[in-house]
Amino acid sequence: MNVLLSAGRPKHAQISPEAQADALWKYVQAMAPRFALDAARDVVTRVSPRPGEDPKALAKRVRAALQAYRVSIKHTNALHAASLLAGFTSWHRNLDDNTNRLTFTTFDVDLARESHFRSWEDLSTGLRDWVDRLLSRGQLPLGVLVLSFGIHAVSLSTPVPATEEDEAQGNQSWPLGTITSSVEDDRWLEGAPFAFEKLRRHLEEQGHAVLDGYAVLRLCGASQDERDHPMAVTVTDVVNSELVLMREDNEGDPNSSYEIARGDELRCWHQLELSLRNDLTNDLPHLQITIPVEGAGAWHVNGNRYVWAVETLKPEAYVPGRVNRQIGIADCERLLHRYYVAKRIHGKDFRHHEQSRHIDYLGGPPATYRVDLHFLLHQLNNAGLTWEGYIEKFNAEPLPMERELPVGFVFQLLENLKIEQPNQVFAKPNLSEMERVDDDALLRALVPRVDHVRYVMPRDLDDVRSDELREAIKEFAESLRMQKLIGAGALKLDDELPHLVWASDANELRLVAESLGLVMYAATVPHLHSTKGILPEMPGINAWPWAFGNALMLRVVEGAQ
Q1: What is the share, in percent, of the chain residues with pLDDT greater than 70?
Q2: Which of 6, 207, 342, 407 is most buried by its number of CB atoms within 10 A?
């Protein structure tokens, strides 16, 4: 069935071959200026679009036909081209051209309202008008508009200076608006780079504010990956992607590189400058930044090489797929231009803007948990209950006793049975479900997403190696705890420590294990923290006794397994 046509949707009349060629020519020429109208006519003849044809099948033929004219387009563009040949204005499933696909909700007090738009192109004008109102009212106090991406929404916010009363908590974030999809469409973000590029130019090139978070969106949207590949990166992956900046002292030796920053633009720029400041005076030297005209993209800062990449995590049960791609010369130039623009806007320092980038992976409880059935049966037995007896006693949802259970069901079960060690209910991954740690790349990607470390060592490990490994893991876990306290504002330091202080911790732990003839495997597991003694108790309110989090699970084995 043609996914562009569905029950209740008016069908578009088949347009003439000449009109098809004209639409194709105008669209492709924007990407390939030498593409001629005669070539478009030939492509239409070759692909011979059929009324009601599935655009996916037509898109494959369009791509192949364009290759004959040395025009290469990605799958998303081919789908759009196929939709034009079918008489539609864009690639959207089960929708007609007059459907409002996007809802823009603003939170500014005197203009709180909800607006609807047919496309990102239509919304781009509304966004520019909206930020002009914010600027006229002084509602971007630190000159930053932050984009945060979720699966179903884009949030827009701005950092604001802390008041004297709240100075200990650091800068706050004011929500300004959200953009959501008004229709069920898992590709609803595909037009977002276009709209936010216009907004970025409007804000940055006129010296108003920095659009923080845009770089990752643009880089994901510019990916040339095939959508059907399991590790393909598309604009939808912006929710689980971030910039990573590495210093590479020896281009030919990957072990010579170390992490400077990860997150969005302002965080990375600030961390770069922080890593270069004089330890005694805290002064930033004059930076001479150049970009090599050949080879891979990089910044050369005062003679040192810095490599930019965009890193994407593909969610899986215990270990995410990780796609790390160094950005090219042109993208390095764009990022450098924006850095200089941001310096003109903000002057000396980016510090008061910096915040960690939120990514969706491990950002909240999943829909289901995999549980340890043996532990669960033991707890039921202690309570004198069977599975059926538990459901009846607590009027719980009548679910079969399976390894995968809904998150709400598991949380309620923990509370009903008053389980004192709730983390034991979660199943531990098998070795085959974990990833061998041969370098520190995966651990560096996971550390910002976890707040606890759990580990399993070989049972027959000798005391000397056992003590040394435990001490190394203890130091790693304590460093992680310190990072979390500092990041949450619970621990204040006289001088800010650069990210690179923590970034080497994972590799140091790996090297200790390696020196002991051991191999580490890693995964992530749920982890609940007791809130007893942390959150104030409210009389008459039965508050949830745990806070949700994640743990880094390490399994250490002998030798090369």
Answers
A1: 89
A2: 342
Q: What is the pLDDT of the chain when averaged over all its residues?
A: 86
Q: What is the DSSP letter of 306?
A: E
d(CA 180, CA 478): 39
Residues 269 and 338 sit within 8 Å (Cβ to Cβ): no
The rounded distance, in Å, linking the Cα atoms of 221 and 218 is 5
Cα separation, 181 vs 158, in Å, equals 22
pLDDT of residue 200: 97
- List the chain domain ranges: 17-85, 102-212, 235-353, 372-425, 431-558
86: helix, coil or strand? coil
Distance of alpha carbon 62 from alpha carbon 82, whole angstroms: 7
Strands (E), 239-347: 241-248, 257-263, 289-290, 299-301, 304-314, 321-326
- Which residue is listed with tokens 């907004």? 199
Residue 281's SS3 state is coil
69-73, 181-185, 539-543: which range is least confident on average? 539-543
Q: Do 269 and 350 touch, CB atoms closer than 8 A? A: yes
Answer yes or no: are the C-beta atoms of 220 and 262 closer than 8 Å. no
Q: In the 8-state DSSP scheme, what is residue 203?
A: I
Residue with tokens 């979720």: 150
CA distances from 37 to 23, 49, 64 (A): 10, 17, 17
Rg from Cα positions in the chain: 27
The whole-angstrom separation of Cα 74 and Cα 222 is 9
Residues 462, 36: Cα–Cα separation, whole Å: 74
Of 152, 147, 199, residue with least CA distance to 180: 152
Whether the CA torsion 460, 466, 470, 473 is positive or negative: it is negative
Residue 91 phi/psi, 5-degree rounding, is -90, 100
Contact 216, 242 (CB under 8 A): yes
